[in-house]
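[agent] plan:
  1. take the single chain provided in the ticket
  2. run structure prediction with default settings
  3. attach structure tokens to the ticket
  4. add a short note for the reviewer (M.T.)
[agent] executing step 1
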Amino acid sequence: MVGDSVTHLNDDICGCSACPRLVAWREQIARERRRAFADEIYWGRAVPSFGTSDGPILIVGLAPAAHGANRTGRMFTGDRSADVLVAAMYRGGLATQATSTHRGDGLELLRCRMTAAVHCAPPDNRPTPDERARCQKFLEREITLVNPTVIVALGALAWDGVLGALRAMGHRRRPKPRFGHGTEVQIAERWLIGSYHPSQQNTFTGRLTPAMLDAVLAQAVARAAGR
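[agent] step 2 finished; step 3 output follows
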């Protein structure tokens, strides 16, 4: 796309209203709000990507949380998943601080960028296949513009979203790589690495521990460094 940039991409993301169900849900959540955040003004729109525009690592989640990024307007900000992920990124040298609470809190990402397969908060955290397909164009542009060496997919749906975007860009791997925590596969000149999503369900049950997340991010850093 002529004249495209991450700024143009984020502007297009924020202005998107392609999925009526998601638009209705994100706006309903922003109106009703959670009691703990009753005094806050929710973002209530599609959430843009966040981080450096030329770093070697792209971290891809599924979608904004209703009272996390849909409230704060920044990827992985203001909820328990953000607490777990950004603390691990800080330990791994990918963030300037261990917390991500709100826009303007001073957090900066180092050599990496965070985005999602779907940019609007979906009901029950489950976007439909059609909604995922409509949002894929943004992920394709993100990968083209940032040109990461390593993509970390947080969860199976993010993994499938990245594979779909790469396939649309002409990079297909057969047979289709299966998602797994710590699984890595090289597609064209990029590495795709899987990680369980840092959701409450995964972290509270021990399916994903801090050590496991640290290991995946260290794996990503090593691949980005050519190791």
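[agent] step 4 note for reviewer: The longest strand covers residues 190-195.
[agent] ticket updated
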